[in-house]
Amino acid sequence: MNRMDRFRCVAACALAMGALPAHGGDRGISFVVFGDWGWNGYNHQKELAETMGSEAKSVGAEFIVSLGDNFQVNGVRSVQDPLWRLSYEDIYTNPSLEKDWYCVLGNHDYHGNPQAEIDYTRVSRRWNMPARWYSVKKSIEGSGTTLEMFFLDTSPLQRKYWSEADHYSDLTSQDTVAQLRWLDSSLAASKADWKLVFGHHPVYSGGKHAPELADMPGRFAQRFEKGGVAAYFSGHDHHLEHIHQPGSHVHYFVDGAHEIRPVTPTPASDFAVSTPGFMTVSVGKDTLRVRAVGQDGKLLHQFAIPRRDG
């Protein structure tokens, strides 16, 4: 079976066959992940927030991960900016979403005051962005299994933005070397059973921004392999996609599907659709399960990643 035949089978056949249970008996820690959402309620934001609330309750989500571009199109100016209410507090009101949110910055957040999003951590009960890059550790109760999540600031790593520095607040003052050294040392030091990485820009994508992301595989693919990363989640391109390069242990997910744009599956795509949606992740002792869910609550794709030791 060639790669594109596999893509068609994974995207359609597996769901019809019920190849994977919705959450599985090895459920562990579950959470919701999505990006590119800050649209003041427009571009499917309100509708997706409703479905996310229902899905978060269904999977027992313990927290939410935001993949950046939290406030379109020019970020926020301060912690008092009305956009905090219009795009966040008054949109994600379901009690199942009143959990910790772990957030990263996107390129549109850099059009405003990115420091304000860090500072909002001290204002909000649920918003967490303690720094431009950071890590969070979780334990699966009763199993001894551990999860460590690494959150990156990928905008300063994009060469294109340095040539347009006037449009990106303090981007050129960020120490990209220090961030990558931190990532390398943190992955090497981590003893977690599961390592997941989150950033705004994809490493691989079949979307609009693929040409400008040419540096990303060289920066991260081998780092992730060497560091034992199971999956990398990103936004930026406005669609849903799952990419798994031949011979790689790392799975790549693109999840920025609010203001949707066309996507062309790559040869390594297991799934790619241009439709509003988000993803849920369930991390168990032996298996990590990722599910893509559409605006109407329909299951679009699901995949199980076995735990890899060593």
3D structure, described in words:
A seven-stranded mixed beta sheet has the order 4-3-2-1-12-13-14. The protein has a seven-stranded mixed beta sheet with strand order 5-6-7-8-10-9-11. It starts with a helix and ends with a strand. It has seven helices and 14 strands. It has 310 residues and is α/β, with parallel strands linked by helices. Strand 3 (100-103), helix 4 and strand 4 (127-128) form a beta-alpha-beta unit. Mean pLDDT is 92; it is low at 8-25. It has one domain (3-306): 4-Layer Sandwich (Purple Acid Phosphatase, chain A, domain 2), CATH 3.60.21. The radius of gyration is 18 Å and the shape is globular.
Regions with little confidence, pLDDT below 50 for 5+ residues: 8-25
First and last CA, distance: 30 Å
CATH architecture: 4-Layer Sandwich
Helix content: 10-25%
What is the CATH level 1 assignment? Alpha Beta
Mean pLDDT over the full residue set: 92
CATH fold descriptor: Purple Acid Phosphatase, chain A, domain 2
Whole-number count of domains: 1
Total number of helical segments? 7
Number of strands: 14
Strand content: 15-25%
- Read across the widest sheet, the strand sequence of neighbours is 4-3-2-1-12-13-14
User: What is the string of helix and strand elements?
Assistant: HEHEHEHEEEHHEHEEEEEEE
Structural class: alpha/beta
Fourth CATH level, the homologous superfamily:
Metallo-dependent phosphatases
Radius of gyration: 18 Å
Largest sheet: 7 strands, mixed
Shape: globular
